[in-house]
Write a structure and sequence with these properties.
Elements lengths: L14 E7 L3 H14 L9 H4 L15 H4 L8 E7 L5 H8 L4 H6 L1 H5 L4 E2 L21 H19 L1 E8 L16 H9 L7 H11 L4 E3 L9 H10 L2 E4 L6 H14 L3 E11 L2 H6 L2 H19 L5 H4 L3 E8 L8 E9 L5 E9 L2 H21 L4 E2 L23 H16 L14
Parallel strand pairs: 1-2, 1-4, 2-3, 4-5, 5-6, 6-11, 7-8
Antiparallel strand pairs: 7-9, 9-10
Helix pairs in contact: 1-4, 1-15, 7-8, 7-9, 8-10, 9-10, 11-13
Length: 440
């Protein structure tokens, strides 16, 4: 009997173009990974869309398909990549310089990677102070730059025969900024583009260009990009999904795993000290205090939302939470995150937990980029627009549909929300995890 869906979803037919503003370590790692997976050279480890499963119905039904076989996602065979970067290196050269992937693997992908060349980027030194681009657009105004991005997108789509497009920001962290008057409405923002308002960041120009063309946009950095009224207004008007912000990869991923466990067991926390060393381009960018501020704000918001100190003052009402990031070139892309967690238990007796996570930042980020691209494309085909809160699973600082609605940071609640959204789209009942005595 055919499945009756709750939502009419257009088929994932034809080619899906994935546009990456930023084709450095993260961008080239996801591109190389997809090419390798397609050729059977590697497995898509870390990707929920490719390796994750979803239970349907009762546990006794034993109906647990792969997500990619359940939801109508685009096939990796139908994906093509493009994007922009501050440097003109093709994807092979950029991946080699990033030093994330093994040279032997890159050699096997060399022909395909060399054919992927970035388009000139929109860049403003004031927003990323420690990088100096050489492959840049110039224009009479910021609106002119947005129009040039639109021309790039149309040309890429035509050249590659794309049926659909999606964009995922993989560029650098911009300096910390708060929304100003130019961000409060689409009319004000477009006038600001024409006036080259200094409060409009490069990442916002990319977001505007994509949303204007109806392209779903996911923001992988803590930049103020699509979480401003002007962009949300444009997304709603054009029926476009948006999501963000800041990929949840290393240390914050560990926090959203550990903190829910402490809260579930009603264990108190007095302090959580986090420090990182990393040496890639991201580390160089974050060596600037203003760029670090944007990342710090994104990282610090996690614990308060999970622990709810106002509701649990005895356990979490006086936490000292410190985050540090240090640029250390010898480490390259192999970030190291140290956490010292001071907890307390029965009768207030103190305990400590030490975590030393030697992670590979781009290896953790690459499957997130792929999943977001495929899920955002699904959302667009399902007629979903505005903030995609069901994708909070992937973000350090998840957006919410309403400004007065707090974000959900608990990784396990986020995963339940994501899978229940897929069940809803496909016409199946949500899983509540009630016991067998309540659930036939």
């Amino acid at each position: 009997m055919p499945l009756e869906r709750n939502v009419d979803i257009a088929p994932a037919s034809g080619k899906l173009g994935i546009l990456l503003p930023g084709m450095g370590a993260v961008g080239t790692t996801v591109i190389s990974g997809v090419l390798a997976i397609r050729r059977g050279l590697a497995q898509p480890i870390g990707s929920l869309t490719q390796m994750g499963t979803i239970r349907l119905g009762k546990r006794t039904d034993d109906n647990v398909p792969l997500i990619k076989d359940y939801a109508p996602l685009a096939s990796l065979d139908d994906v093509v990549f493009g994007g922009w970067d501050l440097f003109p290196d093709d994807a092979y050269v950029a991946a080699s310089r990033a030093g994330v992937l093994d040279g032997h693997l890159l050699e096997q992908l060399g022909e395909e990677l060399r054919a992927i060349r970035p388009m000139p980027a929109v860049f403003e030194q004031a927003y990323v102070k420690n990088l100096h681009g050489e492959h840049l657009k110039s224009g009479a105004s910021k609106m002119d730059l947005a129009d040039q991005l639109g021309e790039d997108i149309q040309r890429f789509s035509d050249e590659h025969g794309c049926d659909r497009l999606v964009a995922v920001w993989c560029g650098s962290t911009e300096v910390y900024r708060q929304a100003t008057a130019v961000h409060q409405s689409l009319e004000a923002f477009e006038q600001g583009l024409r006036d080259s308002d200094p409060d409009i960041a490069p990442s916002q120009i990319y977001a505007y260009a994509c949303l204007k063309l109806g392209i779903p946009y996911a923001n992988g950095a803590p930049n103020l990009s699509v979480d401003i009224p002007a962009m949300l207004e444009l997304a709603r008007a054009n029926g476009v999904p948006v999501a963000g912000k800041d990929f949840k990869t290393g240390q914050t991923l560990m926090k959203t795993i550990l903190a829910p466990g402490f809260k579930a067991r009603m264990l108190g926390v007095r302090g959580w000290y986090s420090t990182n060393i990393l040496g890639n381009r991201d580390g160089e960018v974050l060596d600037d205090p203003e760029s670090f501020k944007a990342k710090e704000v994104s990282k610090l918001g996690v614990l308060d939302t999970i622990f709810e100190p106002d509701r649990n003052p005895e356990l979490y009402g006086d936490i000292t939470h410190v985050v540090r990031i240090n640029y250390y070139p010898p480490r390259g892309d192999n970030k190291e995150g140290w956490d010292n967690i001071d907890i307390f238990g029965w009768l207030g007796y103190p305990m400590q937990i030490k975590v030393d996570f030697l992670c590979r930042d781009s290896i953790l980020a690459a499957p997130i980029v792929l999943d977001l691209a495929l899920f955002m494309d699904l959302a667009k085909r399902a007629g979903m627009s505005g903030v995609q809160e069901w994708l909070s699973f992937y973000w350090k600082s998840p957006q919410t549909p309403k400004p007065d609605l707090y974000p959900e940071h608990d990784l396990f609640i986020q995963l339940m929300k994501l899978k229940n959204t897929l069940r809803h789209l496909m016409g199946d009942d949500p899983i509540t995890h009630l016991g067998a005595e309540y659930y036939d």
